[in-house]
Amino acid sequence: MFKTIIASICIVILAQAAFAESTISFSEKEFNFGKLPQHTAVSHTFWIRATGNEPVHITKVVPGCGCTKAPLQDSVIAPGDSTSIEIIFSAKSFRGYVSKKPYIQINDSEERIYLRIDSEIMPDPESIEPAQFVPYKLDVSQFTEAPRRKASFSIQNKSDKDMSIKLVDGAGKNFDVDLPKEVKAGQSAEGHIMVHKDKIESEFEQSFTIELGDGVGTRISLPVKRMYRVMSKK
Question: What's the mean pLDDT when you consider all of the chain?
Answer without folding.
Answer: 88
